[in-house]
């Protein structure tokens, strides 16, 4: 007779896996921001330091996204990842490169951010179905 883990233990493990996946997805979004900003800074890969940063950020964002998608549904994960990247790129583009960020852009960035938060709050993790693959 094998000992089965109790249901609360399994539920807690799934919750920890889900939290970890969302943390990784958040980091993937930050890497996506770095990728977008460094791509602009590379000036068509003519600026070596920015170009190196672009390649590193691209590898990091794809790798960490793929790790998060082991647990989070691809539709939700990809939407959150691109939302973080798009919003962050617009904000940091304005800060670093002086790009315009008018009231309407700010409004629609807020809509994207609200959508990302809403997706997170509605879940999007398949739990053990993906974790067992």
Short description:
The protein is an all-alpha fold and 133 residues long. It has five helices and no strands.
Task: Outline the secondary-structure elements.
Elements: H1 7-41, H2 48-68, H3 74-97, H4 103-121, H5 128-131
Helix pairs in contact: 1-2, 1-3, 3-4
How many individual β-strands?
Answer: 0
By secondary-structure content and strand pairing, the structural class works out as mainly alpha
How would a crystallographer describe the biggest sheet?
none
The gross shape turns out to be: flat
**Contiguous runs where pLDDT drops below 50 for at least 5 residues:** none
Strand content: under 5%
Proportion of helical residues: over 70%
Quote the distance from N terminus to C terminus.
Answer: 26 Å
Total helical segments: 5
Arithmetic mean of pLDDT:
89
Oligomer: single chain
- How big is the Rg? 18 Å
The helix-strand sequence is: HHHHH
Note down, in words, how this protein is organized.
By secondary structure, the protein is mainly α. The protein is 77% helix and 0% strand. The chain contains five helices and no strands. The longest helix is centred in the first third of the chain and has 35 residues. The chain is flat, with a radius of gyration of 18 Å. The two termini are 26 Å apart. The model has no long low-confidence stretch (mean pLDDT 89).
């Amino acid at each position: 007779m094998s000992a089965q883990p109790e249901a609360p233990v399994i539920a807690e493990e799934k919750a920890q896996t889900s939290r970890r996946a969302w943390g990784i997805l958040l980091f993937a979004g930050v890497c996506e921001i770095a990728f977008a900003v460094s791509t602009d800074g590379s000036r068509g890969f003519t600026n070596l330091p920015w170009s190196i940063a672009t390649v590193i950020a691209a590898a990091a964002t794809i790798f960490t996204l793929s790790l998060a998608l082991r647990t989070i549904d691809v539709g939700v994960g990809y939407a959150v990842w691109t939302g973080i990247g798009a919003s962050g790129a617009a904000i940091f583009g304005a800060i670093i490169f002086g790009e315009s960020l008018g009231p309407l852009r700010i409004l629609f960035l807020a809509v994207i951010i609200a959508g990302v938060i809403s997706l997170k709050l509605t879940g999007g993790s398949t739990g053990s179905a993906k974790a067992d693959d």
